[in-house]
Amino acid sequence: MNKFDTVRLMAWLVSIVAVIGSLYFSEIKGFVPCELCWYQRILMYPLLVILGIGFYKKDRNVMFYALPLSMLGIALAAVHYLHQKTTLFHQVIQCTDGIPCSGQYMNWLGFITIPFLSLVAFSLITVFMIYLRKETDQAAAD
User: Fold this and answer.
1) Measured in Å, how far apart are the chain's first and last C-alpha atoms?
2) DSSP string of the chain?
3) Is there a contact between 125 and 70 (Cβ–Cβ < 8 Å)?
4) Model confidence over 97-119: pLDDT tens digits?
5) What is the pTM of this model?
6) Contacts of 59 (CB under 8 A, 6+ apart)
7) CA distance 123 to 131
8) Structural domain count, the chain
9) C-alpha 41 chain-centroid distance
10) Each residue of 32-89: pLDDT tens digit?
11) Distance (Å, rounded) from C-alpha 38 to C-alpha 115?
12) Where are its TM segments located (predicted)?
């Protein structure tokens, strides 16, 4: 397996863990997702398929499909995490239907919440895709 395959595999594995984790929290632990959590799922679930196909097909262009979703996911997860941990977005974000977006089902070590885990997953996928892009550009230049 070359470095391109390894990077694609790592990104895909991160998306697998993220999707399984989100399903575990909602379906097994019974945590009802808030509105912002649903939007993060909307961005992560297609990444599972896109990165899986990209790995299987050895598609060096998978970053063009995955990067927009993962970067939007970073922004959304960061806003959600800041909404939970600070008062920055309390006036802007009004989750009035269902579960409040400021709620914290878990708070490991005082800072690890579900949006934090989402932020980490989207960030890792983004880093892998940027690395893949740079390596692809480098290989094309050689």
Assistant:
1) 20
2) --HHHHHHHHHHHHHHHHHHHHHIIIIIS-PPP-HHHHHHHHHHHHHHHHHHHHHHTT-TTHHHHHHHHHHHHHHHHHHHHHHHHSSTTTTT----SSS-TT--S--BTTTB-HHHHHHHHHHHHHHHHHHHHHHHHHHHH-
3) yes
4) 778 888 888 988 989 999 999 99
5) 0.92
6) 8, 53
7) 12
8) 1
9) 8
10) 999 999 999 999 999 999 999 999 999 989 999 999 999 999 999 999 999 999 887 7
11) 11
12) 7-26, 38-56, 63-82, 108-132
**Residue 108: strand pairing partners:** 112
Length of the chain (residues): 142
Residue with token string 């893949």: 132
The rounded distance, in Å, linking the Cα atoms of 62 and 40 is 20
- Structural domain boundaries, residue 69: 3-141
Interaxial angle between packed helices 35-56 and 114-141, expressed in degrees from 0 to 180 and rounded to the nearest 10: 30
CA 105 to chain CA centroid, nearest Å: 18
Cβ burial 80-106 (10 Å sphere, 16+ → b, else e): bbbbbbeeebeeebebeeebebbeebe
User: In the prediction, which pLDDT does 36 show?
Assistant: 92
